[in-house]
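Hi V.,

You were right to ask for the full record rather than a summary. Here it is.
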Amino acid sequence: MIQTAHSPIRDRRPPLAREGAFGPGDSGAPFQVTQISTTDVRGGAARATLRLQRALGGAGVRSRMLVAQRFGDDADVVEFNSLAPAPRMLAQAFFRFGRRWHRPSIRRAGAYFTPDWSFTGWRLASQLPPSDLVNLHWVADLLDYRTLPRLTAQLPVVWTFHDMNAFTGGCHYCESCRRFQDRCGSCPLLMTSSGDEDMTRRILNRKQQVLGRVPPSRLAIVCPSEWLAAEALRSTLFRNFNVHTIPNGIDLREYRPMARAEARARLQLPPEARIVLFVAERIEDQRKGFALLQRALEALRDLPRLLLVTLGSGPPALHPPPAVRHLGVLNDSAQLRAAYSAADVFAIPSLQDNLPNTILESMACGTPVVGFAAGGVREAVADGQTGLLAPTGDAAALAAALHRLLEDGALQRTFAAAARDRAEREYDINLQARRYAALYRDLLGPMPPGGFTATPCAA
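Predicted structure:
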């Protein structure tokens, strides 16, 4: 059953778990939650987790974040030392070695695969700080599934899915494959597949055996998009668990509109250009659809002053037209705000996606979105109101949508105002935090006098 905080019509949770059951200042007795993520700032899922971590205090939740690799400087983020009492530096080196050893290389496998075990995750349950509840997030290379029965026996667990990996045989996005609904095997994405009993089937079988020992009452699933929630419920692994939909949030003070001329001057972009912005952690990731965006832009070769601005690791392999400016990786929110505000249009041609942070950031900055109606993208973008959506994979339709917005300044301004308004109504980080806080309280049950006493997991 999908239980959603995004659509009140479909919200079938008890009143305690509905958004609005607790408002600011009405948070009940405090309790301690540990957010677990592979990293703290690298990757969209990590940044979404850190934003939630920071906002939960305002919803009456004491929260800390436990990560395998810490790159930021947030005081409430601590690194997991899998080799304690050995020095943390040694544990960091062991983690890096382990993730390279146990994960098949993308070049050899043909796609991004993460197995169900890890070198260091078997100690996670015994190394937790004092907690009343644990919220797992993107935990690839960190979580060892074999620890889940032990972890859920000691604490209620919320698991936020940021992609499909938890319920597949290793892939993070399945593309057109539906084998995760049954047994996996003969994986069409895995170039090294050996047939029915390949790596993906073995992984799925092991996950099924582990999850069969986890009571559904002790593990709640959260998905940022209704699309991902529906996919989880179709899977052979999680169809018997409660799945909640709580969209990601954005700090509307950090991401807000900036005057276009100021933004372009800050980034040294031409003031009169028609700018299309594309953002991806790895531009070469085929799922992000850059090749289709390139085809769409080639169809707009006669549009004067067209400029593609890209953000991500490594400049795109693109030949004019159009002109291209690659700004590299921008992790600073002020720089990102300038990039979104400098653009006429933000393009997201993803072929499959959850609820990308980039869409929320773009809308919060008042930049219209053009993309494919894929996955959670079509939930975030109100077609014809905050942006334009094309049928997934249709480069010609994407080109037409881009042309329409780039040529119509009045429509841009109308969409920009509506995008900011939608971000304020639906994607405020404080709204997300209150929804999570309500779910945590629902799982923890009645509050004992004086609140919960946080206790660490037994070693």
